[in-house]
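quick one: adenosine-5'-diphosphate bound model?
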Amino acid sequence: MKIAIHHTEVSFSDRWVSYCVQKNISYKLVDCYKDNIIQQLSDCDALMWHFHNASPKDTLFAKQLLNSVAASGKKIFPDYNTMWHFDDKVGQKYLLEAVAAPMVTSYVFYTKKEAIEWVNSTGFPKVFKLRSGASSANVRLVKSRQEAVRLVNKAFGKGFSQYDPWPNFTERIRKFKHGKASLFNVFKGFIRLFYTTEFAKVAGNEKGYIYFQDFIPGNDCDVRIIVIGQKAFAMQRMVRENDFRASGSGITFYKRELFDEQTVKIAFDLTRQLNAQCLAFDFVYKEGAPLILEISYGFAIQVYDACEGYWDSEMNWHKGKFIPQNWMVDLTIK
Ligand SMILES: Nc1ncnc2c1ncn2[C@@H]1O[C@H](COP(=O)(O)OP(=O)(O)O)[C@@H](O)[C@H]1O
Ligand SMILES: [Mg+2]
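yep, here:
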């Protein structure tokens, strides 16, 4: 068994390669951006690529390439069931509804008329989201009908850029104040007030649909459970000051006692039901009941090194450090 690995700096592939070296697993570095990628794979049995939601190139073709490679009988990571819905909250709404998963009630409209009718008949606050985006960048609280109407007009007008410069700049300042970003990073955000990102240019504006969720009040954190095969680990993320959004806050906790085992079981059961290799689930709680906000195959790397252990699918706790990216390789060569 020989694995092809597409290597990108600061991605899962750093650890995939180290693990292959350490375990003597046969691997080859390939370049998915090259026209001859299928030929490059001719002597390999599997392809692993940690493609990224904010890469202008990856989002153009990563899913298409991986699924094509799978069609030739080779294994892929992430596989179809793991990633077709990646960075697509609209896709996830349908998927989680279809399998009757406990999800925050979500709404999507493809005409202005239907969106306005809904806005006029529902209560507020609601949560507005673009279908794509991470670290809370494309998520906001809509407090009134008027605000929702403005968003609907924009969604069916010029649309939303994937890069909103002002909130991005203020978020960099917040991180700087908490010692989580450098002054240079703040400076980059300042420059970005005048020049949008390559990704936003390639992706174009999000338009022609609008997506909302019911707002679940009273959560000072969200809980992320990540399942990889038969193992799961968790992180609690606190919301930002005077905000309802946790994702990307950088304020995280890991003690086992913080996590409700029923929630971990839901994540295990759904991963099995969806036949996925690896899924991160973001949960909030409504009167004690866990509700999924979104799912994702990709996640940050170093922050999870602070986890104190993991559960297996029998819900036994394994105390100690671990490297989740190694489990991805194990799943691929299984
Ligand atoms: N419907 C909701 N009710 C309450 N809080 C929410 C809701 N949706 C999102 N949040 C908060 O906003 C954060 C970002 O939302 P999420 O859908 O996970 O987007 P992202 O892809 O940016 O992580 C979450 O971590 C959670 O704290
Ligand atoms: Mg999230």
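The longest strand covers residues 278-286.
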